[in-house]
Every structure is written in C-alpha cells, then in structure tokens.
Design a protein that fits this description.
The protein is α+β, with helices and mostly antiparallel strands.
C-alpha cells in the first residue's frame, strides 16, 4: 500500500480501536527530551512513554509521547476516541525557515508545502479537533510560568466535549515558552476532563516547570557532505534528525538508510541482508538502463501541449557536476541508493507514527520514506518480510519512473509477486505469496463472479474488466462486490502468471504474452494514458481474452 505524507503524526492514534479507555496517567521520571541541534532546550517527558518522531513533512510537531495505543478517551456517540498523549511543538515564523520541498508529480516538478499552524491555539483546533469544541476561561488564562531560559512562559487549561453528542469532557494542558520573538516551543498534554484531570494536570505542569535552555551543538557529520556528496549530505540530514530523538538511531547499508527504535540486533542484521538481496532482484527485472531508454522517449503530446524529452535515469550514480566538483542535480540511480526505511519496533509504534489502519507497511512517496514494523509479537517475522518485499518494490520503482498513475493490478500485483520471494543463503529465490495463493485458488474454483445473482462477489473478476479497474475498484468499491483482499489475491496471481508462465511452460501460453508487462509499463511511462497502456498491452479480441483467462486459471490452480 502506497501512502502520501500529509497525514499528521497523531491521526492514526485517533483512528485506532475504540474499546473502553485505558487511560494511563503520566508519571514524571528522569527522562528528558533534549534538543541540542536546532532550538537548544530540554524538558522532562512521561516516564516509560516512548518517543514517536514526527513524519518528515510535519511542520509543528517535534515529538509525541503516548502510554499505549489504547490509551484513549471516548468522546462521541459514534465511537470516536481522543488519544491521551503529550506532544512537543514548535512555532517558528522566522523568514529563513522554509517548510516546502520539490516533488515529482505527473511528470512535472512542483513545490509541495504543508502549511504550519501559526500558534498553539490554532494547532489545537486544527490538528487535535476530532469534533471537539475546545475552549478556555479567558478571564483565568493564560497564567504565567516560572522556568529557566524563557522570559515569557505561560499556560492554559482547555476543556472540550464532542459537540452535543457526548457529555464526556476532555481537558488539555498547553504551555508556551518563548525563545525569541519569532520562535515558541510548546507542550501539549491531554487527559480526561473529570475528577481524574487533577492528576494529569499535575503531571503536565511538573514537566512544563522542568523546561530549561541548553547549548546548541554541532552534530558530527561526514566531511564529504560539505563537498556536495549526495549520500553524505543525506546521512548528515538523518543524523541531525535522530540526534534529538531518544531511542531512535541511524543504520545503513550500501543502498539504504534505516531509522529504527528496535534493539533486536539479530532482526536488524537479517533485515539489512534481505533489503540488499531483494533490491538485486528488482534491479534484475527493472534495470536502470532499461528505465533510461524508456523515460528518454518524448512524452505523448496532448492538445495544446508540445512533447518534450524527459531527463534520463542516471547511469553510474553521478549527478551534474559543477567546476568545484559539487553535485547539484541528483539522478535517479543515485537517489535510489539513498532510500530511507523506518523500522518501528512494534505495531503500537507503527500506528502511533502514522501507519494506516489495517496496513503492515506503507511507502510515503512525497517524503521518500518506507515504513514497516517488526511483527514478531503479531503475525510473526514472516509477515514482516512479506510486507518489506512488497513495499520496497514501490520505493525502488519510484526513483526510475516517478509517481505515475498506474493500475493496481500491475502496481500491487507486482509488489505481491516480490513478496513471494524466499531468502536462501543470502539470495532470494522465487516462491508464491502465502497471503494470496489459497485465496485466489478458491476464487477460481468458484468461477467468474457477476454483477448480480448468486455468484455476485463469490468468484474472480473477468480479466478483461479487472485490468481496467481503478484503485478504488481494486480496494473493494466495485459493482461486483469483490473485496480488496480478493482483488489483491487476483492481482498477485495475474502478475505471477505473466512473469513465470512462459518459463514454466504454462498450458496454453502464447509467445506474444511475454511482452505484456513491458508494453504496459513503457506505454504508461511515455504517454501517461492508462487506457492506451491497457489497449497496447492486451490487444485481444474476445477469443484471445478467453484463451488468456483459461490459461491463467489453469496455471494458478496447478501451483
């Protein structure tokens, strides 16, 4: 599952399971959040509450802390819940602070910006709204705070409820520390608005009172970063990122940077071996030189537009070099060799960070970050490896073809194809996807589904229609009532058939089918036209569609 990056860090916490609240009151211990990189301050944080980093494009949150994923306050008649947590925030309006980046979208370079909230009160109502009517007694607040290092420090206590749907009240403690005219650091802490609030407010206020300034120090980085080395610069940026994120660290392989709070060294060593091994498989099937040949072709001209040649995927990982030797234009090959993987130590951390509900991993193409978690306590490590192989494919292909609009049968089906690879002596060998195989075989035995009648939603989708489906239809919003799990299984089976049918001498295989996958991607990459890509990849009449579908069914059922 791919994922864009503009969901705020706290969203997934609010969308989690909503059973009875398991509020764990914050305890003040000896743990600190310390920023010696940008702002120069430290503040005590809840004892034994883990630090959740902000997403890469988050403009206001520095760090978040939560007792557990299920630490929530029920706030609405529809089962809505507000997570109990603490967040450290920044409101930095200095002109030189730029919160934007350039991204590739639809073959064009655009400026992408996540607008920050301009002060803590707007942040509370914009980012922690969840249908809550937040308010404070303006005659009582703000109250001054006496702390070291901030001449202007003050706090508010907010109250709220879920409109008229619930009588449950919620409270929030908000402290603000002024570092300079255009820079403020804030602490936000939530809790139940009943008699238990006194304990929460006491804890949050003790943490606020611990605020103090510290010296800003230089982070030790590779000197090559100053000389323009892209990998060294990326390493330096990530080193600065983790410097104030206690419990998180930076690891790296030849082609990947890994951010993790997992301390299982055996797991991490195996993960790094697997990353490089599966990348070798991707590069065999999608070699950079092949991508270069495709993307150099002129774009298809549309009405009123002039076709233009796109930049080639890089050759030996070199960007454009200036006279002083610095690299100013990073090519796709070099960019792909700096892929970022964030590995959360468990499911709780993953969802707190922003993992979409029901997912086991996602590729955030806007911020070029792949996120997974160690599932040893859930489905087991094998589920982690299946997810890694799938999502890392999305990451790899992004650097060579950009974020192109692509049918899910190809995109997700190919990701699932790689999920079936098994590691044998540090090399991957092809296998089937255990998540998909039995599901699709059951669908095939049912026969084709129909839009109405007893077969509705019970079998497979006719391939002639399936290959045209949008992402929404693939995820279950379709006229056949076929669910997303079933579509993923069928997508895997189609990719598996197309990639292995010829070599395995599938019954009924025709030589012209060898080119379907290449024709589809090349057409789509050069024209951006989904319909044309399907038409050129599958130039079938009714008779050939029938032969193709029969060969696919026979092959998958014979596995």
């Amino acid at each position: 599952m791919t994922r864009t990056g503009w969901l705020v860090i706290l969203t997934a916490l609010a969308l989690g399971s909503v059973g009875s609240a398991m509020a764990q009151e914050p305890k003040v211990g000896n743990d600190w959040y310390e920023d010696t990189v940008d702002y120069g301050f430290k503040i005590k944080v809840p004892k034994d509450w883990g630090l959740i980093p902000p997403q890469p494009n988050e403009p206001n949150v520095l760090a978040s802390y939560s007792a557990s994923f299920n630490s929530q306050i029920m706030i609405g008649g529809q089962g809505a819940a507000l997570p109990i947590h603490m967040a450290l925030l920044r409101f930095d309006s200095r002109p030189e602070r730029k919160n934007s980046k350039t991204i590739k979208l639809g073959g064009q370079t655009v400026e992408y910006t996540v607008p920050p909230s301009t002060d803590v009160h707007k942040w509370l109502k914009e980012r922690i709204a969840y249908g809550v009517n937040w308010r404070f007694d303006s005659e009582k607040y703000p109250k001054p705070l006496k702390v070291k290092g901030s001449e202007e420090a003050q706090y508010w206590v907010y109250e709220g409820n879920h409109r008229a749907e619930s009588e449950v009240t919620i409270s929030a403690y908000v402290a603000e520390f002024s570092l300079e005219p255009n820079v403020k650091i804030c602490l936000y802490g939530s809790g139940p608005g009943d008699k238990k609030w006194r304990d929460y407010e006491s804890a949050w206020s003790k943490m606020a009172a611990s605020f103090a300034r510290v010296a800003v120090e230089e982070v030790a980085v590779d000197p090559a970063a100053a000389m323009g080395s892209p990998r060294a610069k990326k390493r330096a940026d990530l080193q600065r990122t983790v410097a104030s994120q206690a419990g998180w660290r930076l690891l790296e392989t030849e082609n990947y940077f890994i951010l993790t709070n997992d301390d299982d060294e055996g797991f991490l060593e195996e993960l790094m071996v697997r990353l490089e091994a599966i990348r070798s498989v991707y590069s065999e099937h999608y070699p950079p030189e092949k991508a270069r040949a495709i993307v150099k072709k002129p774009k298809k001209e549309k009405e009123g537009e002039k076709g233009e040649e796109r930049p080639a995927a890089g050759g030996e990982g070199e960007g454009k070099k200036e006279e002083d030797g610095s690299v100013t234009a990073l090519d796709p090959v070099e960019a792909s060799r700096m892929s970022v993987l964030r590995v959360c130590r468990d499911e709780q951390t993953y969802f707190a960070y922003g993992g979409p509900g029901g997912s086991a991993g996602y590729w955030n193409w806007v911020d070029e970050e792949l996120v997974i978690y160690d599932d040893k306590a859930g489905g087991g490590r094998n589920d982690t490896w299946i997810t890694l192989n799938h999502e890392a494919f999305h990451q790899y292909i992004h650097y060579f073809y950009g974020e192109i609009d692509i049918h899910s049968w190809y995109n997700e089906g190919t990701g699932d194809f790689y999920s079936g690879y098994q590691l044998k002596h540090s090399r991957f060998v092809l296998g089937t996807n255990s998540w998909r195989e039995t599901t699709v075989q059951g669908m095939l035995r049912e026969g084709p589904t129909t839009k109405e009648g007893r077969k509705r939603g019970e079998g497979y989708v006719p391939l002639k229609e399936f290959v045209t489906w949008s992402q929404g239809q693939y995820y279950g919003n379709n006229s056949y009532d076929v669910g997303g799990i079933e579509c993923y299984a069928q997508g895997w089976s189609l990719a598996y058939f197309l990639r292995t049918g010829a070599k395995s001498k599938a019954k009924g295989w025709r030589p012209e089918w060898d080119k379907i996958l290449d024709t589809y991607l090349e057409t789509l990459a050069t024209t951006g036209d989904l319909d044309e890509a399907v038409d050129k990849a599958f130039p079938f009449g009714d008779a050939e569609w029938e032969a193709f579908e029969n060969a696919w069914k026979s092959y998958i059922l014979s596995i």
